[in-house]
Amino acid sequence: MKLIFVGDPMCSWCYGFGKEMSAIAQSMPDLEVQVVVGGMAAGSTQVLDDAAKQFRLTHWARVEQMSGAEFNREALMARKDFVYDTEPVCRAVVAARMLAPGVDLLKVFRAFQRAFYVDGLDTTDGEVLAEIGAKAIAEQGIAVTADAFFEVFSSDEAIDAAQQDFALTRRLGVQGFPSLFVEVDGKIGRLTSGYATAGQVTRALESLAA
Fold this sequence. Notes:
The chain is α+β, with helices and mostly antiparallel strands. It is built from 9 helices and 4 strands. The longest helix has 18 residues, at 50-67.
């Protein structure tokens, strides 16, 4: 049985779900988890104006209330001419997967989330992403430099691999993030769509396993 997690590091509900997803993985250490990046706003060219920022803050408040996740609102409001393009950060997750196949990709995914939502870093900037990604991989005992990360991140292979994840997301019929699917004997079924607690997910998985 394999759990497929479809999300986007710059999706606020995915960020709120981060602790739950980590708890699921920790409580079921033998469960294979596949991370698929969904490209929520991949390729967006829309500059966030004040109205768009306020719209996101409304969502953030709901996520915070539901999950207790920490948000740096000041950093969002202070951004100038910020384009909410999630392709770079999704590609950075894919680059980590390419660079270090044995890495715990959920931890890398969460490092990018924290960088954006708490540290207020620009996770649309490749060099910033390379620093975050290399550090997250190195913390798992795998030596990777930011330069090496950036080289892979910038490659046509990483761009194509991210697009393949986006295509898989569409084939799975994902309507919102985060989404969880279960693959059993080669057959994939939807488990949850949207925010869920670790308890809800683990009970569903245990039922399926039984």
